[in-house]
Amino acid sequence: MSNVQVAVVTGSNKGIGLAIVRALCKQFPGDVYLTSRDPGRGQAAVAQLQQEGLRPLFHQLDIDDLQSIRALRDFLKEKYGGLNVLVNNAGIAFKVHDTTPFAIQAEVTLKTNFFGTRNVCTELLPLMKPYGRVVNVSSMVSSSALGGCSQELQQKFRSDTITEEELVQLMTKFVEDTKKSVHQKEGWPNTAYGVSKIGVTVLSRIQARLLNEKRKGDHILLNACCPGWVRTDMAGPKATKSPDEGAETPVYLALLPSDADAPHGQFVSNKTVKPW
Ligand code: NAP
């Protein structure tokens, strides 16, 4: 088993994830895994970074596929005995003018952004080594969507005692409510992406709390963040930040020094903790 440190970035064949891998290859003192659900797209991205003189490694990972997540888990366990840095970056968003029925958009978006990210955490967080860093890429849209929730839902999502099971039930309820066209009556905002990212931010707060309870001495720091508005296939060419600029906050959180004890369990934007 190797003593080399290891970092994994989900959904990193393009966009912000690729830029995070680029920055980690330059700054992280260990192996950096570019992962992609499609090996062809992943290998092409590895080749692109190799042309820049960088040496990322590759592993397949589809966060919608539990078998794929578990294959990566087993690989990391066997080759490295764990994991030092995990960046949950993979995500999807329907375009504003997409005509797919809202209930389908809700199901598909929540499946990847919330349930897929959660499954990666369930399988990989137990592998995190002492002083490990976990970064869940959420969005400022999670904050605005929270503001669009009923007072009752806002209270639940801001609660310091909400459990992961309760959060899963709420995310499941959102999808069910969209199918019955009652989601707005039930206090949800009219944004599937926004609700999925509420899920990612709240999940991060819960996971950080659990780390405090169960692994206090291990100095693991886990945060959610917004990369900003970034020119990628998701956000389009009018966005204000380049992918490398969008990578700055996630990379800052991934490389928090070993003597840092904060931020932890926070929502961070522009390297600054934001109120939730
Ligand atoms: P992007 O260019 O569309 O890239 C998304 C990446 O996620 C792609 O590599 C995609 O792979 C991957 N992905 C999607 N579903 C996946 C799955 N099931 N398994 C594994 N990988 C999967 O988007 P981006 O703008 O870089 O977004 C990266 C993250 O930042 C997302 O979580 C997004 O919500 C968040 N974010 C972006 C912005 C922005 O302005 N761009 C703002 C706030 C937050 P394929 O190539 O195979 O589709």
Automatic annotation (TrEMBL):
Q: What is its EC number?
A: 1.1.1.184
Q: What domain of life?
A: Eukaryota
**Which residue positions does the secretion signal occupy?**
none
Task: Kindly give the SUPFAM superfamilies that the UniProt entry links to this protein.
Answer: NAD(P)-binding Rossmann-fold domains
Keywords in alphabetical order, please.
Cytoplasm, NADP, Oxidoreductase, Phosphoprotein
| Location relative to the cell | Cytoplasm
User: Where would you say this protein principally sits, based on its record?
Assistant: cytoplasm
Task: Name residues in a coiled coil.
Answer: none
The protein's name in its UniProt record? carbonyl reductase (NADPH)
What organism is this sequence from? Machaerirhynchus nigripectus
